[in-house]
Write a structure and sequence with these properties.
This is Thioredoxin peroxidase. This protein has helices at 39-42, 59-71, 73-78, 92-101, 118-122, 162-168, and strands spanning 15-18, 35-38, 47-52, 83-88, 110-113, 136-141, 144-150. The protein has 169 residues and is α/β, with parallel strands linked by helices. The chain has one domain (15-168): 3-Layer(aba) Sandwich (Glutaredoxin), CATH 3.40.30. The strands form two sheets. It has a five-stranded mixed β-sheet. It has a two-stranded antiparallel sheet with strand order 1-2.
Length: 169
């Protein structure tokens, strides 16, 4: 499949993994049980911002990328966004811990995992050398892609940062 672009339908078979946040497992040292997250089904009738990072706990991702979305959650909600999700190739335990480290509670931002960067590879947006997820953002509105931006410069958030996504809404 070529890279997603505005006007495309979101694929019908996208399943990530994640660990749902719960109060009883809200501490960073607590582990939950990974479950499948059928994004195609869950997002079919919602407005969604999906942004991808090369890896949890990495410099640009932790210092700028995720914090930008946390800060802009109210603005994204004002624009009608129902779901904000971040995805990386890391396992669900690391992604869960990263959400907790960023003090994200509940489902404010879903911390999803794309094992082996399967989804990112399917849309041509995985790093060839490392096999990791590239840095990108996609807006899906009721199953249709309305924005898709892939970063081509290392550490850049010009296309995938919260400000760029907000400008596209």
């Amino acid at each position: 499949m070529p890279a997603l672009k505005a006007g495309d339908s979101f694929p019908s078979d996208v399943v990530f993994q994640y660990i749902p946040w719960t109060e009883e497992s809200g501490e960073i040292t607590s582990c939950g049980i990974p479950i499948p997250y059928n994004a195609s089904k869950e997002w079919a009738n919602k407005k969604v911002v999906l942004f991808a990072v090369p890896g949890a706990f990495t410099p640009t991702c932790s210092v700028s990328h995720v914090p930008g979305y946390i800060k802009n959650l109210p603005n994204l909600r004002e624009k009608g966004v129902d779901v904000v999700a971040v995805v990386a190739f890391n396992d669900p335990f690391v992604m869960s811990a990263w959400g907790k480290a960023n003090q994200v509670r509940g489902d404010d931002i879903l911390f999803l995992t794309d094992p082996d960067a399967k989804f990112s590879k399917s849309i041509g947006w995985a790093d060839e050398a490392s096999g990791r997820t590239s840095r990108y953002a996609i807006v899906i509105d009721h199953g249709k892609v309305t924005y898709a931006g892939l970063e081509t410069e290392r550490g850049s958030l010009k296309k995938s940062g919260a400000d760029a996504v907000l400008a596209s809404l």
